[in-house]
Description:
Radius of gyration: 23 Å
Bound molecules: 5'-O-[(S)-[(2-aminobenzoyl)oxy](hydroxy)phosphoryl]adenosine
Helix content: 25-40%
Largest sheet: 9 strands, mixed
Number of strands: 25
Low-confidence stretches: none
Strand content: 15-25%
Amino acid sequence: MRADDLPLYYNAVEILEHNLAERADKVALFSPSRNLTFGDVSQEANQVANALLKLDVRIGDVVGLLTYDTPEWVTCFFGTLKIGAVSLGLNTLLTPGEYDYILRDSHAHVLIVHEELLPKIAEIRAGQPYLRHVIVIGGENEDTSYAKWIANEPTTCERVHTHREDLATLNYSSGTTGQPKGIPHAHKDLPLTAQLWGVNVLGLQESDRTLAVAKLFFTFGTGGNLIFPWYVGASVVLYPGPPRFITHILDLIVQFRPTIFYNAPTGYAMALAIPDLVEKYDLSSLRLCVSAGEALPAPIWQQWQARTGLEIIDGIGCTEIYHIFISNRPGDMRPGSSGKPVKGFDLKIIGENGQEVRQGEIGNLLVRGETTASYYLHQYQKSRQTFQGEWLFTGDKYYVDEDGYYWHAGRSDDMIKAGGIWVSPMEVESTLVSHTAVVECAVVAKADQSALYKPKAFVVLKPGYAPSAELEQELIQYCREKMAEYKRPRWIEFVEELPKTATGKIQRFKLRE
Ligand code: 3UK
């Protein structure tokens, strides 16, 4: 399938509404709070659409969505798309300062926020130049509550016939330096990735039921646990809690019996740490597992297979391309590798001279495919470095083995993926140096006992402070409080000085060794 195969005027709300007459009564969405049929979701999404129209939201306007993976995430998402507005899926783990930046940068007019996350917005609300309305999910007694907001809206709404290249979604992704970058995707990208990976690689069918630990605000989650299953009329199970509550997640598998399970490598390692995993949890509903976000080490693949009898499909995707473009596939796997190119995407691996490397050599991975975003919002320079004509510079190092499998070989920048989510070493460093005991520091990725990478800090102390286990714990705790928890360093090594270039730049590669 190519973008040209879609109608010129195509709205991705079609993914929810196609074939609705036949499947109106099928459960589309299972969740701990409530289950909704396709008919229910469509009606509630229409109510959201009508309520947004009343707030004067029009085609191209941005609607922010900051909530856990609850049914409202889904109704607000499709309600936004239906009227041609752009759904900004916000990471629930950010700081008020980050929300402040993103809300300004995206020009969101409306923000729909879960009541538990509202305090982080309340702090920065007053200074927002574009944000006109805040709707609160929960908070039943307030005037701005979601329930009241949609209560009297009609359950039908006319679809805005967007161009297939009109923007549908916006996600922010962090880089080594500076603020996170807004990555806009068009309506066409959603059905395209659904077909190219969801159907062609995963073999999704109407009878499937998916469950993802990866959140809906992350395109790994939106694609895997919403767009792709609904594209074929399959159902989804939503898990609103944090990825570390592995036993809750396993309980959900037992309760809702999904056939496909998405997680990051850390999630599989956590489940494997449960001694009586398969005795305690009935995983027999599952036919496939998926891992992405960071490389899945072969030992985790093998242990999972040995213990559960299930194969994990590891595939690499990125927000710029929306989803997975190199993937293992059922019946064709090489544990430890990312698999082979997904049909519909072209790949090249180039050396420092810009020429393609020979088979087996490591180089920079570039990808070409029709689901790729065109630019980073308000980031002309960064866009030109990453979106190189038809090719996307991924920032990943790769090599290909003699059988054509692609192997991840690190990043070309200093970025760390921990638990499948980005950690910028600079951010952790600036947090650490704000502590009174620290002169300077450098943060790099270090492999833990499961061969998964986590931040490690090398710290130079101020005169008068001596290295100690207590100070190490204090610094880690300090980072926990100042940043999202997953960004904290897991180890701290106190050093006399940091390796630097003649110009004073920290040589992180030396510390990685
Ligand atoms: C790294 C991987 C090795 C890699 C994502 C699936 O992770 C996703 O998107 P992000 O924009 O990050 C992209 C970067 O993450 N990475 C992701 N998957 C793998 N490295 N093996 C993997 N399997 O550095 C890549 O450039 O946060 C993943 C689907 C949608 C996504 N957005």
